[in-house]
Amino acid sequence: MRSGCNFAIDMRNDINIADEFATLVAAKVVEMLEERGLVMAAPAPKSKQEKEQSTTLYSVDEVCQRLKISKATLYRHRDLGYIKPSCHVGRSPRFSDEDIAKYLSNFDDE
Q: How far is CA 61 from CA 11, 27, 39, 50, 77, in A?
């Protein structure tokens, strides 16, 4: 019969082996799916600067200041679909640099 201490060590080793095996199996499955064209390879990781830029979110007040428009105009344009928030924090919309650039490009075409 095993002692309690040895049993715990054996269990940790078994769990580590199972985790390694699961990781290898998952990698092989993804590789096979990529070869068959059923799954696209993951995009290259973004640089630190790209991550920082993509994660900057602006409140309604900040967007209005940057665009030099009123809140009423921003809300009206949002309702018309000219600008869409990336997400909401509670009930407050948050806009990314990309959202603002898309909004401005709507008016560059005219």
A: 56, 46, 41, 24, 15
